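agent> Task received from the user: take the single chain below, predict its 3D structure, and emit structure tokens. No templates, no multimer pairing.
agent> Plan: (1) validate residues, (2) run structure prediction, (3) serialize to tokens, (4) report one or two observations.
agent> Step 1 OK, no nonstandard residues flagged.
tool_call: predict_structure(input=
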Amino acid sequence: MSNHAHAQTLAEDPEPEEWLDPDVWLARRGSSRDAGWDVDDRDRDQEWWDGWDGADEGDWLDELSGGHGDGGAGHAPWYLGDALAVADGTAELEVQDWEAEILAIPFVRRCRALLEYVGEGRRLTDRGTLPVARIRELRGILGVSRPGTTLREVPEIRECWNALIQMGVLTIADDWVRRSEDPHGHWTLDRSSEDLSAGAVAALGWLLALKTCVCPEHGGFEGEWCLLETLLATTAPGGLMLPRLPEDGELGELEVAELFAAIGASPQITRLPVDEEAGCVDLAALSELATVQRDLDLLVDAGVLERRGASIIGSPALGAAVALHLILRDRALPQCASPGCRRRVRER
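)
tool_result: status=success, residues=348
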């Protein structure tokens, strides 16, 4: 399907209640091609996979450092300080350590459990979604305490479901979901440790790409470039200590004092968010922090990141996932993928 035809389809698609969540809509379409990607571009993908261990990471790291507008080219977000340099200097993992690191990510473990649950196939509703009983079963199997009876209500299940379908590992046809008989390339999560690592990175990369395809109002990322740099910083030893703004967004004198105390306790932050000319708190800097805080929370809910007190911990596998995400996002349309939404989510 051409981009033009796909854009027309977006505008004309109906919006039944079950499709309100954009991720469910993407999954219902059943093919990455329908979202603007070509998952069968094997030559291009194989090139990337051959160097996915970081041998060619310079280009995409340069793209990240100059990609966001707020800080200007070559400037990381203010709250990262030297965290990116610390993460970049982290020792490379041995091959045998990759599997342990990969399996420590809750999102990856849930993806594997979901594949096992699907087994030979599971019947879906006539809208192509998981029935309520199946959602309840999966919540128990995956150890999810969050209440909910739909994919939209349980991100711990929804994000795995959508990533596996967009990867082509799960397929939907005739109101059934089944494991694919011919997973694309290296994208599998249940064979050798090498395949497991590549498949897990693919699942993480697809999740990032999917969240980039929808606007914030429909569950997508709000500050992609700052978020990607922050993700890389979470892979440093001990993770990234990030001061947290109040959930209600209210900043009185007490809240400002507590925030500045947390900033002072953060080992990587080298400057305070203060507007020297105006002599007050730099609201633009705090807005940047609030944006990345929201986006990180989405990934904590998905099981990609772990929050330990004031620190956010990310796996070394996220570096490769960010690189894959940059390839996938370049193949997607710039408009929000939610039915009827025409907001631009990025420039092409």
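agent> Step 4: summary for the user.
The beta strands are 122-123, 170-173, 176-179, 240-241, 274-275, 280-281, 306-308, 311-313.
agent> Done.
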